[in-house]
C-alpha cells in the first residue's frame, strides 16, 4: 500500500468570514475551514515512478490550496486527474479522491455549482459499486456538507456532516477526526437554528481542542468562535464573552499575542459588544482584529471585517460607512478580482449605502452587479440573492412600484419555496412588500405582509434581534397613516419597549410625538400629556427651547391637551408660547402656525371671550391663506 501524500498534515484553508450565524441574508455566508486531509491509500501498482509523480502533483495542489491559491490547486488536480484516467485507468478510488479535491478547490473559488458537479461524478463512481476506503467515504460526505453549508442549505449540510461522522465511527482514523467533523457539524446545526444540538457537539470539540492549543490553534479558534456565537443566539451573553476570552487566553499562552487565530476571536468579542449596544468597545476589538489581519495579509477576512465596521456606522454616519465598504472592495479586488461572488456582500453594501445617500443610479449599478454575480454563482433561486432582490425592490419603490414588487416577489418566491434556511433577515422582504402596498393605498395587503414578517422573526430570532424593532416601527407608521390608532399605539409601544431594553438609547422625537398623538386620538389625554412632556424635557436638555417646529409643536400639543381637559390657564400659557414661536416663522410653517392660533382661539371661546377668539381665528385664516398667495 502506497500513501498518495505521505507526510502532509491537515492543511487549513480559511474562507474568512466569521459571521456564520448572524450575517445579513442578503449575501453569501462564507465562514468555514476547507480542509484537505490527504491520508489516502490505493492498491499497489508496479509503476512506482508514476505514483510518485501523482503524489507530488497532488501535494503541490494541496499546499497551494492551504495558501489560498485555489486556482492553482484546481489546475494541478485537474491535470492529475487526466493522468490518472489515462495511465492508471478510469473509475478508480484515486479518481474519487481527486474529484473530491477538485470540488473543494471549486468551493474555495466559490463556484459551488461546479463543486457539486465534481462531487456528483465522485458519487456516481461510488454508486457503481466501487470499493473505497472508509476514510474516503467520510471525506466525500464532508465535502458535500461544506458545499451545502456555503450554499446556505443548512439542513442538507447537517445531513452530510452526520454521514461523515458516522463513517469516522466505523474505522480507524486520525485522533482528532471525530472532533473536527463535530465542529463542522456544530456550525451547520447553528446555521440551521438548532442551537441546542450545536452546543452539544461543539462542547465535545471544545473540550478536545482546549487541551491541544499548541497543535490545533486554528481548530480551537474556530470551535470557540462558533460556540461563542451560539451562546449569543441563546441569549447567554456572559458565556459568550467567557468562551471568546478563554480562547484568547489559550492561544496567547501557546502561540503568542500575535498569532493570526486571535484575530477572529477579537472580531467575535467585538460583535458580542455590538449586540449589547457597546459600539465603542466593539470598534476597539474590530481594530485589534484588523491589525492582525493586515499583518498576515489576510485579504478575505479584511473584506468581511470592513463590511462589518461599515455596518456599525451605516445608520449614524453613512459617509463613513461608505468609506469602509470601499476599503472592503479594494481588498476584494486584491484577493479575488472584481467579478468574484465573494464580493456580492460588498457590492450590495455599497449600493445600500449609496441609496441612503440619495445616489440612486450608483446604488442601482452596484446592487445589480451583486445580483448578476449571485445568479451566475448560485443560480437565480439561491438564498444568497434574497437581500439583493430586496435592495433593488427598495430602490425601485419610489421610481417604479411595479418593478419593485417584481424584485421583491423573486425574494419572496425563494423563501416560500422552502429552499432557504430560515433567517430573521428574510423578514425584510415582507416588510418592503408591506411598505410598497401601503404607498399604493392597500393597507390590508400591507398588514398581511407585516404579519408574515412577524411570523418569520418569531420562528427564527430572539426579541433582541433588530428586525423586530424595524418591523414594529414600520407597522406602527402604516397603521397610524391608515387611522388605525389602537393598532399603531400597540406597535409603537412594542418598538419602544425593545428599543429601550436592547439598544439602551433614549427614545427620540418621532416616537414620543407619535405616541402622544395616538393617545390623544384615543382620548387617553393623561397618557398623551406624559409623552409630550417627555419630548419637551428631551428638547430642553438639547437647548432647543426656541426651535421651530420641534419645540413649538410639542408645547402647542401640550396646550391642546390642557384645553381638552378644561385646564384653561395652563392651556393659554402653552398655546401662547407656541403661537409666538411659530409666528416668527409663519411663512415657513403657515399650516402649523394657523392650527395653533385656532387652538388658542378655542380656549378664549370656551372661556367666554368671543371677541378675542374671533380675532385669533381670523389671524389663523389669514396665515393659512397666505401660503396660496404668490
Describe this protein's structure.
Helix content is 72%, strand content 2%. The longest helix has 19 residues. A two-stranded antiparallel ribbon has the order 1-4. It is mainly α. The N terminus is likely disordered.
What overall geometry do the principal axes of the alpha carbons give? Answer: elongated
Structural class: mainly alpha
Mean of residue pLDDT values: 81
Taking the alpha carbons of the first and last residues, their distance comes to 97 Å
Ranges where pLDDT stays below 50 over 5 or more residues in a row are: 1-45
Strand content: under 5%
The number of helical segments is: 28
Q: Please describe the biggest sheet, giving its number of strands, its sense, and whether it closes into a barrel.
A: 2 strands, antiparallel
Topology (SSEs and partners):
Elements: E1 2-3, E2 11-15, E3 32-36, E4 41-42, H1 48-66, H2 70-88, H3 93-108, H4 112-127, H5 134-150, H6 154-169, H7 177-191, H8 195-210, H9 217-233, H10 237-255, H11 261-275, H12 279-295, H13 299-313, H14 318-336, H15 344-356, H16 360-378, H17 386-396, H18 401-416, H19 427-439, H20 443-460, H21 466-481, H22 485-503, H23 509-521, H24 525-541, H25 550-564, H26 568-583, H27 590-606, H28 610-626
Antiparallel strand pairs: 1-4, 2-3
Amino acid at each position: 500500500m502506497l500513501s498518495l501524500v505521505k507526510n502532509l498534515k491537515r492543511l487549513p484553508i480559511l474562507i474568512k468570514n466569521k459571521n456564520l450565524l448572524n450575517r445579513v441574508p442578503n449575501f453569501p455566508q462564507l465562514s468555514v475551514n476547507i480542509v484537505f486531509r490527504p491520508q489516502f491509500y490505493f492498491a499497489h501498482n508496479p509503476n512506482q515512478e508514476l505514483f510518485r509523480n501523482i503524489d507530488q502533483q497532488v501535494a503541490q495542489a494541496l499546499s497551494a490550496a492551504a495558501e489560498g491559491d485555489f486556482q492553482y490547486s484546481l489546475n494541478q488536480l485537474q491535470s492529475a486527474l487526466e493522468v490518472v484516467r489515462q495511465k492508471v485507468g478510469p473509475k478508480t478510488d484515486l479518481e474519487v479522491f481527486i474529484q473530491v479535491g477538485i470540488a473543494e478547490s471549486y468551493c474555495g473559488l466559490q463556484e459551488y455549482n461546479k463543486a457539486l458537479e465534481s462531487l456528483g461524478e465522485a458519487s456516481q463512481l461510488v454508486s457503481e459499486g466501487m470499493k473505497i476506503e472508509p476514510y474516503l467515504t467520510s471525506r466525500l460526505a464532508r465535502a458535500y456538507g461544506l458545499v451545502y453549508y456555503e450554499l446556505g442549505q443548512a439542513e442538507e449540510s447537517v445531513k452530510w456532516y452526520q454521514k461523515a461522522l458516522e463513517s469516522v465511527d466505523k474505522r480507524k482514523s486520525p485522533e482528532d477526526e471525530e472532533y473536527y467533523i463535530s465542529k463542522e457539524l456544530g456550525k451547520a446545526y447553528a446555521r440551521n437554528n438548532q442551537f441546542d444540538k450545536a452546543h452539544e457537539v461543539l462542547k465535545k470539540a471544545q473540550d478536545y481542542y482546549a487541551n491541544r492549543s499548541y497543535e490545533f490553534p486554528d481548530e480551537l479558534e474556530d470551535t470557540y468562535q462558533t460556540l461563542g456565537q451560539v451562546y449569543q443566539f441563546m441569549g447567554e451573553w456572559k458565556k459568550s464573552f467567557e468562551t471568546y476570552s478563554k480562547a484568547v487566553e489559550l492561544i496567547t499562552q501557546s502561540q503568542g499575542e500575535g498569532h493570526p487565530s486571535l484575530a477572529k476571536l477579537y472580531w467575535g468579542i467585538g460583535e458580542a459588544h455590538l449586540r449589547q449596544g457597546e459600539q465603542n468597545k466593539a470598534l476597539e476589538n474590530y481594530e485589534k482584529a484588523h491589525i492582525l489581519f493586515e499583518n498576515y495579509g489576510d485579504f478575505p477576512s479584511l473584506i468581511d471585517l470592513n463590511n462589518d465596521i461599515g455596518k456599525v456606522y451605516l445608520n449614524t454616519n453613512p459617509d463613513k460607512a461608505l468609506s469602509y465598504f470601499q476599503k472592503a472592495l479594494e481588498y476584494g479586488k486584491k484577493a479575488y478580482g472584481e467579478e468574484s461572488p465573494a464580493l456580492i456582500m460588498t457590492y450590495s453594501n455599497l449600493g445600500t449605502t449609496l441609496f441612503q445617500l440619495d445616489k440612486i443610479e450608483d446604488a442601482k449599478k452596484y446592487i445589480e452587479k451583486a445580483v448578476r454575480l449571485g445568479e451566475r454563482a448560485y443560480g437565480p433561486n439561491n438564498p444568497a440573492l434574497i437581500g439583493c432582490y430586496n435592495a433593488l425592490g427598495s430602490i425601485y419603490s419610489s421610481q417604479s412600484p411595479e418593478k419593485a414588487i417584481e424584485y421583491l416577489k423573486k425574494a419572496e418566491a425563494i423563501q416560500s419555496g422552502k429552499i432557504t434556511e430560515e433567517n430573521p433577515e428574510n423578514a425584510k422582504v415582507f416588510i418592503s412588500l408591506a411598505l410598497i402596498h401601503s404607498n399604493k393605498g392597500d393597507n390590508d395587503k400591507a398588514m398581511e405582509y407585516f404579519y408574515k414578517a412577524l411570523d418569520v422573526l418569531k420562528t427564527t430570532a430572539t426579541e433582541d434581534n433588530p428586525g423586530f424593532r424595524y418591523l414594529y416601527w414600520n407597522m406602527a407608521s402604516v397603521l397610524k397613516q391608515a387611522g388605525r390608532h389602537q393598532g399603531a399605539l400597540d406597535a409603537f409601544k412594542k418598538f419602544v419597549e425593545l428599543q429601550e431594553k436592547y439598544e439602551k438609547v433614549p427614545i427620540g422625537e418621532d416616537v414620543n410625538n407619535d405616541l402622544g398623538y395616538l393617545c390623544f386620538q384615543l382620548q387617553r389625554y393623561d397618557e398623551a400629556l406624559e409623552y409630550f412632556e417627555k419630548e419637551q424635557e428631551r428638547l430642553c436638555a438639547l437647548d432647543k427651547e426656541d426651535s421651530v417646529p420641534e419645540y413649538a409643536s410639542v408645547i402647542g400639543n401640550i396646550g391642546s391637551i390642557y384645553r381638552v381637559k378644561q385646564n384653561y390657564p395652563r392651556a393659554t400659557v402653552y398655546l401662547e408660547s407656541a403661537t409666538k414661536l411659530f409666528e416668527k416663522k409663519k411663512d415657513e410653517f403657515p399650516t402649523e402656525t394657523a392650527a395653533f392660533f385656532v387652538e388658542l382661539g378655542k380656549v378664549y371661546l370656551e372661556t367666554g371671550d368671543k371677541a378675542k377668539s374671533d380675532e385669533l381665528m381670523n389671524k389663523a385664516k389669514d396665515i393659512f391663506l397666505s401660503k396660496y398667495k404668490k
